[in-house]
Amino acid sequence: MMTPLGPVPDPTGRPYNNLLRRLSAADYALLAPHLTRDEAGPNDLLYSPGDDVEVVHFPCGPSLASYLVPNEDGRDVETILVGREGAVGGIVSEG
After folding, report:
1. pTM assigned to the model
2. Long-range Cβ contact pairs of 46-55 (< 8 A, separation 24 or more)
3. I need a surface site. Which of 9, 17, 29, 86 has the fewest CB within 10 A?
4. What's the CA gap between 89 and 4, in Å, rounded?
5. How many CB atoms neighbour CB 15 within 10 A?
6. Which helix (H) or strand (E) holds 81?
7. CA 69-37-84 angle, 5° bins
């Protein structure tokens, strides 16, 4: 369930994601009203092939997101892991 981003027990007041923490105060202020906290479990699907990507996920803390690419023989191959140093989604669907 998505909930508004509440207080974070951290001196910076920002989520524990390196990209969000490296933003200037002005840039973070632009994003902050749109940030929500969402909990996902193991094997939860964030996007399916062909989806319009409208939401960016910023893994926080020990979270990891992986990209799986379907192989011709029906197996999925994990191609990348994204942790708190990055983001998943973005401007992929903007052409």
Report:
1. 0.77
2. 46/88, 46/89, 47/88, 47/89, 51/93, 52/93, 53/89, 53/90, 53/92, 53/93, 54/93, 55/89
3. 9
4. 19
5. 19
6. strand 76-82
7. 55
